[in-house]
Structure formats: C-alpha cells, structure tokens
Amino acid sequence: MEEPVSITISWRRERLVDCPGQLLHQISREQSTSLELKDSVTLAWDTPLTDGGAKITNYIVEKRESVRKVYTTVTSNCTANSFKIEEMPEGGMFYFRVCAVNEYGQGQMAETKEIKISEVPLPPSKVTLVDLTKTSVSLAWEKPAHDGGSKVMCYNVEFNNYIVEKRDTNTQEWQMVASNIARTSFKAGRLTHGAEYQFRIYAVNRYGKSTYLDSPGITAQYNFKQPGPPSTPIVKHATKSYMLVTWNEPVSDGGSPVLGYHIERKERSSILWTKMNRGMIKDTEYKVTGIEEGMMYEYRVYAENIAGIGKCS
Predict the structure, then answer these.
(1) pLDDT value of residue 74
(2) Start and end of every Fibronectin type-III domain (predicted)?
C-alpha cells in the first residue's frame, strides 16, 4: 500500500456563521491489492478544523483525469470520512478533491497529488528447472501476465525485481534466497546433496509484492546417473616389472561424459582389492607396476562421471 498523499492546509473564518473550513491535515489514498478490486481508489480524510458554526452534513468528492482541467462530481452526499471510488480505468492518472458541506454551503476543496490507478503485480508464471547439481538449482520463470500498472523500475520491461524463497520440504520454514533479482532466472547454491527443496517466487513493483509462485519439489542431485561398467579389462602386455591393462569405455555414460577411470587389483587367491591409480585415469589403459614374478593377478575398472563412480567391470 502506498504512503498517504499529503496536501498543505490553510483556512480562515470571516463570519460567525459560515461554510465549513478546509479538510484537516490530508487526504490519504489507499489502493486495493486484490485482483477483483484493482480498479478502485479509496480516499480518506479528517474532519475540518472548523465547521463554520453549523453541523457538517456531508462531503463532496470530485475527480479529474490528469489530461483534463475540469473536475466531475463522484458523489455529493458522502456522510463518512472516506469514500471508495470504483470502476477506475487501470493505469489512468487522476486528481481527487474533497470538501465539507453545512447548511450554509460548501467549504474549500482539499486536493490530492496525481494518483496512478495501480496495484501489485500478478505472480510470475511457468517456473522451469534449467540446471541441477548435487548442491545447486538453476530456475527460470516467465514474466507476470500483468504488472499492476506500475512503472518499470529495473530492466525496462515489466518489473524491477523478484523475491525468491526456498524451504527444505521436511520443514515448514521458508528462507530468503535473494530479494533483488533483476532477471527472470536465478541459481540457488550451497544446497544439501540429496535434500528436496521447494522454491517460491514473487514479482515486485513499487506498490508491493505479488502472490507467490511455487516450484515443484526439487531434489539437489544431478539429473544424470553414474556411468555403467567398462568392459572386462585384459592384460595387453606383461613383463617381469609391469602389466599393461586395457579396457573399453562403458556402454552407458549415465547421461554425462565419462571423466576418467579407476583400476583395482588383487591376487587371484585373495579377496582383498587394492586401488592402483592415485589420480583419475584419463585413457582406457593403465600401466601397473610392482609386479611379483609368478603371481597371478585379477583387475577390475570403474568409470566416473560428474555424478560419481559407477559399478566395476
């Protein structure tokens, strides 16, 4: 709701019995924030400091468009200190003025500043998941279908920013992620791997924030799986000091390119596997050293992508 519109008040009394004085202090204006009443303006005012020596019977409310010079009467029989003007054209610019009336006539008019018939915007629409990792979620959404009639403040399209909130679906508490996003996309980081989150997005203009748009539940994990097993490794070449082990890449990469491989070895009579490589193996072969002459060895290989290490060959 916008701050009240203030006007400067002055009045004087020339006779013992007179018309009432000008309205006291200010005319304030409220604008509806509900969609059904977005085309209305509510004016409110204080009673004049003097009634002119006779009881105030009613108030006259008038309006004029900013492009016109002549006021038209909205009501001449308002008995309260406020009045709601409905069926206003959305986005229109208007001035309003009010005066008090007693049996001797009407007092001096009190006028508002220029008022634009506006409201908070509709919420954004069609939130979509752009990218997903184990610790981050990237979202995008469409601009609201209606901006509330307010002036664009940021990127000269419709809105000046968005508010994004998130919550772990195991709780009912919403946390602020960002409150000044000038674009229709956002990346939320530092999420817990495996936790499910829901995101809530608001559109904001000068009159406030819209109702929210909720995303579906999103689990912080990669959209793809770990790769399948490589082919069964074979010893392509063997000497007393090393063995050259080779394999083929997996049939399935899990939806993400294979980053490399890991190889393990065990003696045929043992159940204990030992990792041979220190860093990730980039090729589909590996030279294994530390060979003991006459010993029989077995090998197995794992492929790794960004989602993790897959099953062994």
Answers:
(1) 95
(2) 26-120, 123-223, 229-313
Model pLDDT, residue 122: 80
Give residue 156's pLDDT: 25
Map residue 17 onto helix, strand or coil: coil
Domain count within the chain: 3
Spatial strand order of the sheet with 274-275 comes to: 274-275, 260-267, 297-305, 308-312
* CATH value at residue 43: 2.60.40.10
Gap between the Cα atoms of 313 and 260, Å rounded: 14
Is the residue at 10 inside a domain? no
**All residues at 6 or more sequence positions from 306 whose CB lies less than 8 Å from its CB, including other chains:** 133, 222, 224, 256, 259
| In a domain? residue 57 | yes
- 12 domain-assigned: no
Distance (Å, whole) CA 192 – CA 200: 18
Contact of 20 with 52, CB cutoff 8 Å: yes
Q: Per residue in 84-110, pLDDT tens? A: 998 888 778 899 999 999 999 988 898
Residue segments in the chain with a per-residue pLDDT below the cut of 50:
1-16, 24-37, 151-162
What DSSP assignment string belongs to 281-303? B-SSEEEEE-PPTT--EEEEEEE
Alpha-carbon span 265 to 235, nearest angstrom? 12
The reply to whether 108 and 130 lie within a common domain is no
Residue range(s) defining the domain that contains residue 142: 125-219
Length of the chain (residues):
313
Residues 78 and 147 grouped into a single domain: no
Please give the Cα distance from 78 to 62 (Å, whole number).
Answer: 11
The reply to whether 7 falls in a domain is: no
Token pair for 136: 């981050």
The span from the CA of 217 to the CA of 169, in Å, is 7
Q: What is the pLDDT of residue 77?
A: 94
Look at the pTM and tell me if it is higher than 0.85.
no
As a whole number of angstroms, the distance between CA 43 and CA 95 comes to 11
